[in-house]
Design brief:
alpha+beta, Immunoglobulin-like, 9 helices, 501 residues, Neutral Protease, domain 2
Length: 501
Amino acid sequence: MAAGARAEQTFSFDSTPGRLPKVVVPVNYAIELTPDFASLALPGVETVDIEVREPTAQVTLNTIRATFGDVTADDGAQRAAVTTDAAAQTATLTFAQPLAAGRHKLRIGFTAQINKFGSGLFSVDYPTRTGMKRLISSKLEPADARRIFPCWDEPAFKATFALSVVIPRDLLAVGNMPVASEAQVSDNLKRVTFALTPRMSSYLFVLTVGELERVTADAGGVTLGVVTTQGKTEQGRFALDSAVKLLAYYNDYFGVKYPLPKLDLIAVPGGFGGAMENWGGITFFESRLLFDPATNAESARRGIFAIIAHEMAHMWFGDLVTMAWWDNLWLNEGFASWMATKASEQFYPQWQNWLNGYGVKQFAMALDARRTSHPIQQAIADHSEAVTAFDAITYNKGQALIRMLENYLGAQAFRDGIRKYMAVHAYSNSTTADLWQALESAAGKRIAGVAASFTERDGVPLVVAETVCDGTSQRLTLRQERFVIAPADVAPPSWRKRRWH
């Protein structure tokens, strides 16, 4: 995306950026995984219902370091030859006869790996009073579902997921949805089958398995849970109470109720990262979720509440409605950051959250004052570039812009626009243009040009006022220029023509 403003289009699957061909799209994944906790092998098999949009003999999807077994179409009617491209992180399935337009089934046998680093499905070894224990968990954003199972691993390829996992009988498995059934496979193993998910992007898939415990609460028919390693559930009480408050608040604000029957907050030992907004099963680094009054300062409550509020806001901004491509990541992260601050102010006004957020805004402005800054909406070519978008400009400048727009439109009109945006794009994808369209419809005033001057350009404006005395009169002149701090970042002449609204 160029630094200058451009007319972004509303969401269209065919025009959405990405690397995968759009000739074949997934409809449903039925996946069975059998993780080996000792060898860290991950054998699996999946049956994928696909929609073939035009006849093709080739199906291309994402994978990393998987080995393939039998790959067939339509109950074995055709067997595929599989070629992989490690650089592109893809596998191409080639059939002797083209698949006709319409619905088909692919059956793919594969073996992936459980990693020792925090991407894909990974293992965590942690100490207990009886020795070291191991659990496995997942972290897939932006593009690591492909490390677990072959899939269309781009956000616009939404599908439903039916997961089964074969695990030791004494372990607890947590996924996106509630457990639908359990069945004994052998003396030591059981098969845990989860209910079918709604349509969602692949990076929101979650699986955590280990010697875990859960404490739960009912919130308007939704089961909220905090999942911990053994002996730590009491440290999850503050998180659980916070989730109960936040769910009711968000249901009301967004005008669309949380659509899943459960939501777990999962505490993972170790340092895999901060938190990840998997739909129905949010994962957290333990210190970001658990509160122990005996060892934690009271100020830790503020941080725990803020990150829970941020991740739960993603259940709407990001999960229910997902950015079409990573150039619109701010629709996920900027809004979740803004909503977390708004919720903190609602429940804990004594924390003075907007005042504390002033420092966050100042930090974003300082970064944006440099020549090395980038627009909130920036061009993202592929998954490797997507990682770079998770920065302070996306989160902090995005949040500050949203608050400015709320003040410009008025809180009620802004909320009405957000509700319309959620209702129209639920279970689908969107671009920033879709958001502007919803806000304009609700507020009855133009906003796209105003907002685009902040989202599609780097920098923020500095308004300079100059007065000139001319006899008995004074003339006031106002002009805009880009705000800079360091002399080396003074804007070149081409930037002087910019106008922020």
